[in-house]
User: Which sequence fits this backbone?
């Protein structure tokens, strides 16, 4: 049965050693099984045969014609050298032209024989021609089953150079799937196949390549997409299950003095319902003895930090230390400032450790950490270094987690003898489908509500030429006591030039809002951390009115009095970045604004991005558009996830199949977690064929 699939590609009729080599090196096709797994990316409808009369006024479409070919000969020289012929049916004629493979074509076309030709027509001043048509001589050997929906396969340039064309892959695949004993192992349990009224996997594969009609093609796709997504989900869930079985989590049973004192006496605001719900989810998790791995998604400004704070207090109440790691120094500093402020009247020791902590300070922090005298350690990647050892680490918060690599995350937990609970937070909302696919092994909490009293940010798009007008607006805002962010993208490749363009941007703003009347903070990526910190502080404490910066301020910076975000060359930013930047304002009770500035000329994508920003403040909606525009491969953090290995399924359009597949995987593992029941045999076999890839979001 699976012998056929294991057969080497050389054994198929029509594959010599050269072609076999090309198929292997270019497409990784070694066996018949590989060939079958090389899916077509579209089908052409070859059931329709056009006449020349029908296509006279057409252009740029693929058509199939039937008639005779009369060679004309070779014309031109050099790269323009070509062979032409006249194609004629009973309604008219068109010109055929070849620039390559001329000697082969010359021999192949003979007058007096009927040909089927297929290709894209172009219309040059009323004269129709077709370059490099596919030819099929309608001799006695012609197999009419080649008509109908025919597959078009992905090919590489290398293959085309080696004369391997779509037609060959077509023939080879046809050879395989029409064999009487063509059969692939079934990978779904019978009950699942029945439940969803799926065709068998064998049928699905045959139909995917050579569908008898469109409906069968759709059925085949529905089945094969389900397979892909089912196995992706099953792997996520197995990973999660294994973790729960093998790792013993710390039990945080009581809500104690730290938590209660802070919650009841010092918390500066009432939690939103969403924050309360998430906190409850975390509390339920950490008291069960399972090790928590939770992703907290919440739009920018939704108040994730306070949830992290309260969780860490819960950890302290249960006798452990906690830490929070941020991707940038600015953000770590800011967390340390707010946490220290929040903990002002509490008996909690907070320390900050970053790459620029002085040696002396560092030694002291490490000593205290090991002695258990520091309760909460805030920091950057610096927390990951070997010698950073806690006495009893119990809870790890990773902020803006998509900015960290896998290895980095894994290293954090090794700092405890016992695996700590892990809360990863992300302000880059991703659509539910993507979350399921990328983070399928994590528990997900969502803060879907903003703190009360926030006014939605008003976003406008302005052209550069109207700069004087919005500069007046900025003056008015500053006169009201508000502060302004003014952001420039890094346009130049070289750091030096980038800084220069930032400087000239700075000068330009100063011309309108001139110092010393207006006071500036200025931050860019290459500044010394201490300088960054002092610039940031000045702005935060209201000593400066305008913060001119690059995107270093993108993540997490929190200055509630800042009410305007101006972004120059907005068309150069991605949607996620624009949303993050805008999220720096609208954090206080005042009406906030975001001004997106661009030139007059915009690419279609650039226009769509700006339009989306103007239309909505909802991070999830923005993420959806982003996913549509860029595809999952370009989104933060998806590169190493299974999303990109999907061959047929597209999480953008196959949401319902994805959800069905996930639910089915959950149900199946509930029924047979270890896959030991006879009904699970197809699943067991399938899993044993492909070893479990490391799923990147794996954090322990
Ligand atoms: P993010 O989720 O983007 O990390 P932050 O945690 O920085 O957001 O919170 C944004 C701002 O909202 C902060 O100034 C924070 O103190 C404030 N905040 C958080 N929760 C609430 C709440 N429930 N009510 C009022 N303000 C809140
Ligand atoms: Mg944050």
Assistant:
């Amino acid at each position: 049965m699976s012998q056929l699939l294991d057969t080497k590609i050389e054994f198929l009729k029509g594959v010599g050693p050269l072609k076999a080599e090309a198929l292997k090196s270019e497409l990784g096709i070694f066996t018949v099984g590989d060939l079958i797994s090389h899916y077509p990316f579209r089908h052409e409808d070859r059931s329709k045969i056009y006449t020349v009369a029908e296509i006279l006024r057409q252009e740029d479409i693929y058509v199939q014609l039937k008639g005779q070919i009369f060679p004309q000969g070779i014309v031109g020289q050099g790269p323009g050298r070509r062979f032409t012929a006249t194609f004629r049916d009973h309604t008219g004629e068109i010109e055929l032209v070849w620039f390559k493979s001329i000697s082969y074509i010359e021999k192949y076309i003979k007058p007096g024989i009927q040909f089927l030709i297929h290709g894209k027509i172009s219309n040059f001043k009323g004269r129709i021609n077709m370059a490099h048509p596919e030819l099929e001589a309608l001799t006695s050997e012609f197999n009419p089953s080649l008509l109908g929906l025919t597959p078009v396969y992905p090919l590489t340039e290398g293959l085309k150079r080696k004369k391997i064309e779509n037609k060959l892959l077509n023939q080879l695949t046809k050879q395989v799937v029409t064999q009487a004993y063509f059969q692939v192992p079934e990978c779904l349990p019978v009950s699942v196949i029945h439940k969803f009224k799926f065709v068998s996997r064998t049928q699905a594969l045959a139909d995917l390549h050579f569908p008898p009609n469109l409906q069968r093609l759709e059925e085949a796709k529905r089945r094969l997409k389900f397979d892909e997504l089912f196995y992706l989900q099953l792997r996520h869930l197995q990973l999660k299950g294994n973790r729960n079985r093998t790792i013993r989590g710390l039990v945080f049973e009581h809500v104690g003095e730290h938590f209660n004192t802070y919650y009841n006496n010092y918390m500066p605001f009432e939690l939103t319902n969403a924050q309360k719900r998430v906190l409850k989810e975390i509390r339920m998790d950490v008291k069960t003895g399972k090790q928590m791995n939770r992703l907290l998604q919440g739009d920018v400004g939704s108040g994730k930090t306070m949830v992290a704070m309260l969780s860490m207090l819960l950890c302290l109440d249960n006798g452990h230390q906690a830490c929070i790691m941020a991707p940038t120094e600015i953000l770590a500093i800011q967390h340390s400032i707010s946490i220290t402020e929040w903990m002002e009247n509490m008996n909690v020791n907070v320390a900050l450790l970053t790459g620029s902590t002085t040696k002396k300070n560092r030694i002291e922090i490490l000593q205290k950490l090991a002695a258990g005298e520091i309760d909460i350690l805030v920091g950057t990647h610096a927390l990951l270094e070997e010698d950073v050892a806690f006495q009893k680490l119990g809870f790890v918060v990773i902020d803006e987690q998509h900015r960290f690599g896998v290895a980095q995350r894994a290293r954090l937990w090794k700092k405890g003898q016992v695996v700590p609970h892990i809360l990863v937070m992300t302000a880059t909302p991703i659509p539910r489908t993507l979350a399921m696919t990328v983070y399928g092994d994590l528990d997900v909490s969502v803060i879907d509500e903003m703190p009360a009293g926030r006014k939605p940010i008003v976003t406008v798009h302005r052209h550069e030429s109207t700069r004087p007008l919005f500069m007046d607006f900025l003056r008015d805002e500053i006169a009201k006591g508000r502060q302004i962010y003014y952001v420039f993208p890094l346009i130049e490749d070289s750091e030096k030039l980038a800084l220069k363009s930032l400087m000239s941007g700075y000068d330009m703003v100063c011309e309108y809002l001139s110092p010393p009347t207006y006071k500036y903070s200025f931050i860019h990526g290459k500044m010394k951390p201490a300088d960054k910190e002092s610039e940031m502080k000045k702005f935060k404490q209201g000593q400066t009115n305008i913060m001119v910066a690059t995107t270093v301020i993108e993540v997490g910076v929190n200055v509630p009095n800042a009410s305007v975000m101006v972004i120059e060359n907005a068309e150069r930013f991605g949607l996620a970045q624009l949303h993050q930047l805008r999220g720096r304002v609208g954090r206080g009770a005042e009406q906030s604004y975001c001004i997106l500035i661009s030139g007059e000329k915009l690419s279609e994508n650039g226009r769509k991005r700006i339009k989306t920003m103007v239309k909505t403040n909802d991070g999830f909606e923005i993420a959806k558009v982003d996913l549509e525009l860029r595809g999952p491969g370009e989104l933060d953090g998806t590169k190493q996830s299974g999303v990109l290995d999907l061959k047929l399924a597209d999480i953008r359009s196959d949401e319902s199949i994805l959800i069905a597949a996930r639910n089915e995987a959950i149900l199946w593992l509930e029924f047979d977690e270890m896959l030991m029941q006879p009904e699970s045999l197809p699943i067991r076999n399938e899993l044993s064929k492909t070893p479990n890839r490391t799923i990147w979001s794996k954090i322990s």
Observations:
- The first strand starts at residue 42 and ends at 45.
- The CA atoms of residues 224 and 589 lie 51 Å apart.
- The chain has 25 helices and 21 strands.
- Residues 269, 271-272, 275, 298, 300-306, 427, 451, 556, 558, 560, 587 surround adenosine-5'-diphosphate (ligand 1) (CB under 6 Å).
